[in-house]
Amino acid sequence: MKKTELIASRLSAVLLDGYWIANTNYKDQLENISWEQAIHQVADLNTIAALTYHINYYLAGLLQVFSGGPLTIKDKYSFDLPPLRSAQDWKQLIENFLANSTDFVQEVAEMPEERLEEVFVDEKYGTYLRNIEAVIEHSYYHLGQLVLIRKLIQQSDEDVLQ
């Protein structure tokens, strides 16, 4: 198996179809979260919708670079989720996230292996490999938050029912 295919497999595991590392993945989690849960604010934590937008923001930005475009994303905008006013808005965010996840995995799988060691946009950002691995690590970090926030929401819902 090529190194790019192995890395793509790790990306797919966290984003779309894996259960080995975290016993879940974004797709599994997001498809079972209602719009109300997605926008529910727990204390001062990010909402599930904000975390979804945040990871998707980076996927879209890096996909733009993979396609030969400029790097235009900025950390300070990565949580600028437009208001979600309906279940349809939430569904659209999930669909966009899953489409970008699928495209990202495919782009990495088809990437020439030598590109992994090339500079990503500017030397200060390191290599393509460093940035792709950062997406994996960053995604697992926020997946853990998402799962915990979801459990807190479900617990508060159960408390209301009792």
Could you describe the 3D structure shown?
This protein is an all-alpha fold and 162 residues long. It has 6 helices and no strands.
SSE blueprint and pairings:
Layout: H1 3-17, H2 26-30, H3 35-39, H4 48-66, H5 87-110, H6 128-161
Helix pairs in contact: 1-5, 1-6, 4-5, 4-6
Major sheet size, sense and barrel closure? none
Mean pLDDT: 95
The dominant shape is: globular
H/I helix tally: 6
Number of strands: 0
N- to C-terminal separation?
Answer: 53 Å
Radius of gyration: 17 Å
Oligomer: single chain
Q: What descriptors fit this protein?
A:
63% helix; 0% strand; mainly alpha; 162 residues; 6 helices
What's this entry about, in short?
The protein has 162 residues and is an all-alpha fold. 63% of the residues lie in helices and 0% in strands.
